[in-house]
Every structure is written in C-alpha cells, then in structure tokens.
Amino acid sequence: MNREYLETVLKTMSVSGHEEELQKKVISHMRSHADDIMSDVTGNVISVLNPDCESKVLLCGHIDEIGFIVTSIQSDGSLKVTNAGGVRAVLYLGTQVQIKTKKGIINGVVITNSSLTKRNDLTCTDLTIDIGASSKEEAAEIVSIGDPICAKTDVLPLMNDRLAARAMDDRIGAFIVTEALIRAKEKGCKTGIYAATTVGEETTLRGAYWSAAKVKPDCAIAVDVTYTSDYDGVNANSTGEIGLGKGPVLCHSSIVSKKMNELLKQCADDLNIELQYEIAPGRTGTDADKVHFTNDGIPTALVSIPLRYMHSSVETLDMKDVEQIIELLAEFLCRFNKSINLNPFE
Ligand SMILES: [Zn+2]
C-alpha cells in the first residue's frame, strides 16, 4: 500500500464539482500501473487493467468531498456560502477553511459568535467566512462566485494505525479502488478491471452514471464508507452493528446482487478476512444506486470501510480495514470471469 500517495489524495481539495486537480494526481500516479487510463467529459478517471479481456468489473470510489461554494461577497469583504453535499453547519463554526481561487488556495475562518452557537437550526447559508479582506472590492480581486471551499485540516495519525482526516468519505474509497487494481495485477489477474475514481457522488451521482454507461461492465462494486456504531452517543441502529478495525462491510440491499455477496464472502473466507454486514433495504446512498440502474441494469455490490464521525473534519478509520478491503477486492477481481452467472435463477 502506498501511504505517501494516500496522504496526497487526502490532502488535495476535491469539493464535489471541482475534482480536476485530484484526478490529475490519480492519472499521474496510475500511469505506471494501469494498461490504459480513460477519462470523460464529466471528469471521471478510469484506470484500466487488461482492456482486451471480455469480462469486465467496474470498481467505483468517489473522489469528491463535501464542502461549500461561494455564493456572494459582502460589503465588508466576508463571504457567504452554500453547501456542496451533506454538510452539517454547526461543525464548522469557529474553524479554519481553505478557498480555491483563480489565484490559488487562500485561507479563511468561519466566524462564530454567541447568537450562532446558541442556534439549533443553523444552516450553511447562515455561515460567514472571514478571509481577512477589508472590502468587497479587495476580496473580489481574489475570490470569485462559485469558488469551492473545504475545511483546512491535515491527516492525523492516531494510535493503533488509525487515521483521522476530513473527507475520508470517500477519497479512501478512491484510493482503495486504484490500490485493488495494483494488487490484482501483482496477483496475475487476467480480468478486465476498470477502477473508476468517480466525481459528484456527494451532490448528483453523475460520475457513477457516466462511468458505468461507458464501461458497460459485467458487474460493479462501489467502495464507500459506512457509519460505525462503536463510539460514545451512537448505538447500533437499524443498519446494524459495525465496528472500526473489524473488517470490510458488505451491504444487504435490494439493489445488491446476492450472488456477488456470496462470491465476496467466499473470497473473504479463503483469505481469513472477517466481514461485517449492514442493512440498506432500499437505496444505499452511494454510487451503487446509480450504477445499478445504468444501461440494461448492472449487477452491483457495495463494500464499505467502517468510519467514525462521518461528514465531519475528523473522519476516523482503521488502516487494517483498508488493507483487508484491498486484498478482498483483488481476490474477487482475480476470480471473476465470464463463466460466473449472476442470474439468481440459473
Ligand atoms: Zn461517500
């Protein structure tokens, strides 16, 4: 596993709709590993192994992150914003942010005062960002309406090889799909692998649609994060009991192929990897939902990384889970071939 590359992925801004800079880093990293790299108009990057193989597996890990978009510059030089994706405004009061402008990345702080902290109905449009400018004109020389903003945070190693960072959701999934391709290649995989780092999951699922429509795979696996139920104030609820460091999570959902889950379970058993299960009776809230409904319908599975504190700036995971998911996916990719029939009646 390339930890240096993981740090690069986690440190680069990729607010939903503004993923190009990080995608360029994926392209330059994967150039030496993939047989081919495809891209498309909406901004997906798809690293391909064995492009001549008839059987094709699509992996999707979304590379966009939640954040804000500048909506206006006020007369005092401060910025107003709206959210890109599921941002909880209260988590940002009194925090540092970064704004990607035409002149590069600049710093800002989200203002806080007693009337803001007392509110329990705070929304993202209530937030104001101070960039240090003293007038609208001064700010407008640097900042444009539509510029993306996200938390200014670093990658923080914790005990037991646990890692905290903003937007592990789902840059860790984007990292995993490319690492799974590299690991499958090391294992001599002959299957056609299409590792898509998809755009726009947090806002529109546009990347999942474009990549599945283009690749037309025999089956697809979305790799995303899922809520754990193992920390203060959170109980195991209707989605199941999930713990950090306790292994990859498979999803039972009406959109997930049971036969794919069985194959994944077989791979996990043979590799001595413990699995966890979550329940999503309907849609899963991931790229899997969109991929499943693309073309004539695509058999889909969802493999998730246990994650604490979802959609905060301190999303925390266990690198043991990451290693195991890479191994599990690589094994599935090596075993998948045209003779595997995913029709539940045959
Ligand atoms: Zn996600």
Give the arrangement of secondary structure elements:
Layout: H1 3-11, H2 20-30, E1 36-39, E2 45-49, E3 56-62, E4 67-73, E5 79-84, E6 96-101, E7 104-110, H3 114-118, E8 128-130, H4 136-140, E9 148-151, E10 156-158, E11 162-165, H5 168-186, E12 192-198, H6 206-215, E13 219-227, E14 249-253, H7 258-270, E15 276-280, H8 287-292, E16 300-307, E17 315-318, H9 319-335
Parallel strand pairs: 3-12, 3-13, 13-16, 14-15
Antiparallel strand pairs: 1-2, 2-12, 4-5, 4-9, 5-8, 6-7, 6-9, 7-8, 10-11, 11-17, 14-16
Helix pairs in contact: 1-5, 5-9, 7-9
The structure holds zinc ion.
Structure summarized in a few sentences:
With 346 residues, the protein is an alpha+beta fold.
Give an overview in words.
It is built from nine helices and 17 strands. It is globular and about 65 Å long. The mean pLDDT is 96. The strands form three sheets. The protein has an eight-stranded mixed beta sheet with strand order 1-2-12-3-13-16-14-15, sandwiched between helices. A six-stranded antiparallel beta barrel has the order 4-5-8-7-6-9. It has helices spanning 3-11, 20-30, 114-118, 136-140, 168-186, 206-215, 258-270, 287-292, 319-335, and strands at residues 36-39, 45-49, 56-62, 67-73, 79-84, 96-101, 104-110, 128-130, 148-151, 156-158, 162-165, 192-198, 219-227, 249-253, 276-280, 300-307, 315-318. Helix 5 (168-186) packs across helix 9. It has two domains: 3-65 and 166-335, Aminopeptidase; 67-151, Beta Barrel (Elongation Factor Tu (Ef-tu), domain 3), CATH 2.40.30.40. By secondary structure, the protein is an alpha+beta fold. 27% of the residues lie in helices and 27% in strands. The longest helix has 19 residues, at 168-186. It binds zinc ion (ZN).
